[in-house]
Amino acid sequence: xxxxxxxxxxxxxxxxxxxxxxxxxxxxxxxxxxxxxxxxxxxxxxxxxxxxxxxxxxxxxxxxxxxxxxxxxxxxxxxxxxxxxxxxxxxxxxxxxxxxxxxxxxxxxxxxxxxxxxxxxxxxxxxxxxxxxxxxxxxxxxxxxxxxxxxxxxxxxxxxxxxxxxxxxxxxxxxxxxxxxxxxxxxxxxxxxxxxxxxxxxxxxxxxxxxxxxxxxxxxxxxxxxxxxxxxxxxxxxxxxxxxxxxxxxxxxxxxxxxxxxxxxxxxxxxxxxxxxx
Length: 278
Fold this sequence. Notes:
Layout: H1 8-22, H2 31-45, H3 50-57, H4 66-73, H5 84-103, E1 110-116, H6 122-133, E2 142-149, H7 152-160, E3 162-164, H8 173-179, E4 180-183, E5 190-193, H9 195-198, E6 201-205, E7 217-222, H10 231-243, E8 245-253, E9 267-270, E10 273-275
Parallel strand pairs: 1-2, 1-7, 2-6, 7-8
Antiparallel strand pairs: 3-5, 4-5, 8-10, 9-10
Helix pairs in contact: 2-4, 5-6
């Protein structure tokens, strides 16, 4: 079998494996896409056929290759302050609301936020920028932002914190100057997140189909990831997310998640914002 060919049967087997491993449903018309992405791993491993690669990653000897396979399959594209209204709410309502609760002694002087399926880090770093801007109303607070993703490759990129102009095009100039180091000599130009932003974010490899072993969160961002999940997989993710929410916590969802009918335990605040009631 040539590595240039992915048969229909092989495509089905890879799709089934992806679904079992990550809950992601691959459309029938994505055979060429899957072939191209698996071919990257054929080159990297020196395996010369799709069938041999499938046999390898489903064997005990291929356990270390499975995360790299999923890295190659998943698509990751985002930028800072994507969906600006979400960050306007975070800075203008959520963080001041927590500060007021702390003044009334109904909340600790701390905030925990989970950026689920955070890709290359733009979302958790955007959250961190708003938390830094809110320091005057959160003096001495512990701020803990957790960015998780299924892909170790994108988490490595997130930790590096280096972005191009496209990724930061919605970041105001004053914020770029204050919180990024500019490498104007590189082509394309690069922006590196500074240490005070990085210090607020921790990174964790995590499959949304599994519970996240962390203390409860005051706010969870779940955006632009569940479009590839079927109904049963979405229900499993929602169960895990709801279990991770603290009392009175908020859930920020993207427009493509398709989970609105699954959020009955929460109260709808805005079309994209839900709250867990005490």
